[in-house]
Design goal:
The complex is a heterodimer of chains A (about 120) and B (about 150).
Chain A: H1 9-20, H2 23-34, H3 40-45, H4 51-63, E1 67-72, E2 75-80, H5 83-94, H6 98-114
Chain B: E1 10-16, H1 20-28, H2 30-33, E2 41-45, E3 48-52, E4 59-63, E5 65-69, E6 73-78, E7 92-100, E8 106-113, H3 119-142
Antiparallel strand pairs in B: 1-8, 2-3, 3-4, 5-6, 6-7, 7-8
Classes of the chains: A mainly alpha (about 120), B alpha+beta (about 150).
Chain lengths: ~120, ~150
């Protein structure tokens, strides 16, 4: 298992949790997971939101380290940075035993399937 | 990461509490890479990058150094010679950007791109980079390799 060093991490955790505490931003993260390296225009076209609104959400994701932007020619591309989510995973999921969580999720799936 | 539909460019970014010089050394010195890079001994000079198995007997990757700008930027080719399933794939490219921040922190960005001709490598390294970068951070911040 991967163990991340705890130094200065609580600060980052706050930002990551806050960034993910919004459905639009989670949606943007999911879109980038499906296909990385997108422009603002591409991301904006999938959302019922002004360009300014999308920019604001992307900026919060960037400040949390979840999105990294790179310039490619004239374009600014947005990439998902999986590192902070992994850090959260190691700190908050592994610690509370993944096995129990996955057993509960299986149970939930089973119950919902038969419902 | 295996469910990603497009993995021709992968970006990883993290903060490490260490100077850019120490991070640079950890990238190019085989004694240090052996502690966090799956045991591999990696030697990087302006002339090239050579990665070998822990005992030095096998070539795990042999590639060009495309940019050498210590301690800020390093760009090198990537071949996955450590795995026969991946070894015949096209050479891809790895870029390291090392930027000092406030408070003794350094931002490290790794971009693994030009993966169009190396789809299996792309899938394989996605989890691998997490492990390597986590190990690099732990080594530099605590002096201890990952258990």
């Amino acid at each position: 298992m991967t163990v991340w060093s705890p130094i200065l991490r609580h600060v980052d955790d706050d930002r990551v949790f806050r960034a993910l505490a919004d459905p639009t931003r989670r949606h943007l993260v999911d879109r980038l997971f499906e296909r990385d390296g997108r422009t603002l225009t591409e991301l904006e076209s999938e959302l019922e939101m002004t360009r300014f609104g999308v920019m604001k959400h992307l900026r919060l994701l960037e400040e949390a380290g979840l999105v990294v932007t790179r310039r490619q020619g004239r374009e600014k591309l947005h990439f998902l940075n999986p590192v902070p989510i992994r850090q959260i995973h190691d700190r908050w999921i592994d610690k509370y035993t993944e096995r129990v969580v996955s057993a509960l999720l299986d149970l939930k799936d089973d119950l919902e399937e038969t419902a | 990461m295996s469910t990603m539909t497009q993995t021709t460019v992968q970006v990883y970014q993290l903060f490490i509490k260490a100077t850019p010089e120490r991070i640079w050394d950890a990238l190019v010195d085989p004694e240090l890479t052996s502690k966090y890079f799956y045991g591999s001994r990696i030697t990087i000079t302006p002339e090239g990058r050579l990665s070998t198995s822990p005992d030095g007997s096998q070539n795990w990757g042999d590639s060009e150094v495309l940019e050498w700008d210590p301690p800020r930027k390093l760009v090198h080719g990537w071949q996955s010679l450590y795995d026969p399933e991946l070894s015949n794939e096209a050479t891809s490219r790895v870029t390291w950007e090392i930027e000092p921040q406030d408070g003794g922190m350094t931002k490290v960005t790794v971009v693994h791109d030009q993966l169009e001709g190396a789809p299996k490598t792309a899938e394989s390294v996605a989890g691998g980079w997490m492990f390597v970068l986590s190990g690099l951070k732990t080594l530099l911040e605590t002096g201890e390799p990952l258990a």
